[in-house]
């Protein structure tokens, strides 16, 4: 399975008094990596929003395995686990460069909605659907 990598440096503001990353900051990094991943595959969030498509998170899970520390570089690897017409499931692995042992693993599931939260079908936007399917094919094992 292909993945996209975004590198993030841990800022002092990301940590607690002991220099360990505060748990909620991992979620911010997931969003940053997902956004960059989609942009790298020609599906910037601005294009989604321009046609009225939103991807709110409907499920999120993080498994913390080892602490990330102040000033470390963190690689956030993203893949698309499943692409449906009305939802997208991403998987993430956070690790130090050159170290395959994960600091954390995570997943997010996103509904496809309009600005009012009504479910939409991506295949009703042919150009966008084609781009997203190409990204999913490059980044994951299955699509419907």
Explained architecture:
By secondary structure, this protein is of the alpha+beta class. The protein has one domain (4-139): Hotdog Thioesterase (Thiol Ester Dehydrase, Chain A, Roll), CATH 3.10.129.10. It contains three helices and five strands; from the N terminus they run βααββββα. The chain has a five-stranded antiparallel sheet. It is elongated, with a radius of gyration of 16 Å.
Give the termini separation.
Answer: 17 Å
| Class by SSE composition | alpha+beta
The named CATH superfamily? Hotdog Thioesterase
Tell me how many strands there are: 5
Strand content: 25-35%
Q: Low-confidence segments, ≥5 residues, pLDDT <50?
A: none
CATH class: Alpha Beta
Q: Mind describing the biggest β-sheet?
A: 5 strands, antiparallel
Q: List the strand order in the largest sheet.
A: 1-3-4-5-2
**CATH architecture verdict:** Roll
The CATH topology corresponds to: Thiol Ester Dehydrase, Chain A
State the oligomer. single chain
The percent of residues in helical segments reads 25-40%
Instruction: Provide the gyration radius in Å.
Output: 16 Å
Order of secondary-structure elements: EHHEEEEH
Total number of helical segments? Answer: 3
- Counted up, domains total 1
Shape: elongated
């Amino acid at each position: 399975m292909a993945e996209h990598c975004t590198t993030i440096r841990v800022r002092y503001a990301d940590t607690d008094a002991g220099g360990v990353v505060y748990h909620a900051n991992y979620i911010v990094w997931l969003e940053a990596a997902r956004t960059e991943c989609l942009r790298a595959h020609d599906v910037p969030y601005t294009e989604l929003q321009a046609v009225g498509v939103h991807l709110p998170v409907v499920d999120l899970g993080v498994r913390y395995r080892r602490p990330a520390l102040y000033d470390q570089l963190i690689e956030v690897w993203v893949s698309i686990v499943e692409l449906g017409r009305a939802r997208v499931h991403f998987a993430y692995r956070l690790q130090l460069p050159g170290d395959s042992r994960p600091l954390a693993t995570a997943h997010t599931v996103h509904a496809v909605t309009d600005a009012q939260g009504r479910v939409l079908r991506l295949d009703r936007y042919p150009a966008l659907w084609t781009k997203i399917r190409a990204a999913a094919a490059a980044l994951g094992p299955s699509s419907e």
